[in-house]
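Structure ticket #2291
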Amino acid sequence: MKRSVFFLSDHTGITAEILGHSLLTQFEGIEFKQTNIPFLDSKSKALKAVEQINWAAEQDAVKPLLFSTLLDNEIREIIKNSEGQLFDFFEAFIDPLEEVLNTRSTHAIGRSHGIKGYDTYKTRIDAINYALKNDDGASTRNYHVADIILIGVSRSGKTPTCLYLALQYGILAANYPLTEEDLGDAKLPAPLRPYRNRLFGLTIDAERLHQIRSERRKNSLYSSQEQCKHEVNTVEELYQRENITFLNTSSVSIEEIATTIINLTGLKRRLYG
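Resolution: structure written out below.
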């Protein structure tokens, strides 16, 4: 079964996508064809969006799902008159909040992802720069200021998790790859030993690692099932021997990995939203 889905916003559409995706993951057996229509901030753009929605409705012979964070009443009315089934996040929550708080909302566009102040913006940029400069063991000189250092075999999710921690939470996250040479010594690499209390391990099922590495280097020793199994088993033995908390990332999203790490380590986030 196939169903068209539209994420509609008068800004980036990030909020509509995140909330919409969260809801759609609860429904299995349906193939969702997803379209993001951001910056829907004029009547002409709204009418053009309605044409897309109505065309999808005709092709699918069923109403497309519309997840909206639109604030402009005129544009919302135009969308409501389309052939789609509208799920309006702001309408669902803003009106009850106005009643409870006994005040009108600003209905300002882009508040959730705008720059809320120079300090907040600088915190995010500094954290992202730190993650990039301290990625994949490229430099270990600044580990003394790291909030956390992710370790694990190649392709276990270290880099995207560090960037997500930086972008969403302002956390200074470095990562260090445990290579064949490191695993052969059966000890923590020397650069990591002074920072044992900041280490967090990532692991992954050997079969999943084989699939990921094969997309990068097919039919190589690096991607072979035997090599993947050896590295995973060895790194997990290292974690257990060194009493390092670790997480299996095989079927977990980057968002979930980051949130789990914060929960397990008690890391203090510097950014909220």
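Closing remark: The first strand starts at residue 2 and ends at 8.
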